[in-house]
What we know:
The protein is of the alpha/beta class. It has helices at 17-30, 50-57, 82-88, 98-102, 108-120, 133-137, 141-152, 159-162, 185-203, 205-208, 224-229, 245-263; strands spanning 5-10, 39-44, 61-65, 92-95, 124-129, 166-170, 213-216, 235-238. An 8-stranded parallel β-barrel has the order 1-2-3-4-5-6-7-8, surrounded by 5 helices. The longest helix has 19 residues, at 185-203. The N and C termini lie close together (11 Å). Residues 10, 171, 176-177, 180, 216-219, 237-241 line the site of 2-phosphoglycolic acid.
Amino acid sequence: MKKKLYVGTNNKMTMTIAETKNFITELRELTADISRDEMRLFVIPSYTAISAAADCAGDGITIGAQNMCWEERGQFTGEISPLMLEEVGAALVMTGHSERRHIFRETDEEENKKVISALTHGFISLLCIGETGEEKARGESDEALRRQIIKGFLGVNPSYIDRGMIWVAYEPVWAIGVGGKPAEPEYVFRRHEKIREALAFVFGIERAEKVPILYGGSVNNENAPKLIAGGDVDGLFIGRSAWRAENFSSIIREVLPVFKVKEK
Ligand code: PGA
């Protein structure tokens, strides 16, 4: 079976409900001609915009949440539960984004509880991992990634992979956001190899092969085709460069043919 290109954006805390609706509507129109057999497109808006986003996304855009509490209900002020996300139409839950881990001090153990809860509630679980600049400087990138994979997926039933519910995004902390430095493609390819090995350690080789691994961190029009051209990169997870629908669509159109050549 031919592989699909995975491409998505995390809107972070940047768009109101009205802005998200405009963004999704435009993105939907701009990508209407691209077959979803070739591409899995997803958008992760703010919590408040999920419902509106799900309403205007149609079948071609998967809508996700940027975070989730592992509990269904209770005394967890400020948190949003799986039941609430189900109710507003989210289909995917992102866990462990760098900003959650580093600004809000989330741990691998917490990410693990969220991954398990998301899967149990029927969501696609997108686990984000990435080494810090210090870990990279110490030559400990692969160790950090392996740790995040092993701890993040501890106790996860491998059969979720067969249902396409486990995705991974590799986002080096030093590469993300304003001031981030995009990773060189060769560097990304080596890390993805190691991530695949860690997944094989956890889930077995055959199942590990089926987990899409996306790259994220300062992806733009210029580096996107190079990042997808080689290595074990199944897709791109984009922030700033995707927040104008027109630009997002132009990146998709640049990378899709490159990806198809690689997968031939
Ligand atoms: P960026 O964000 O593309 O703006 O660097 C990536 C991310 O945080 O997912």
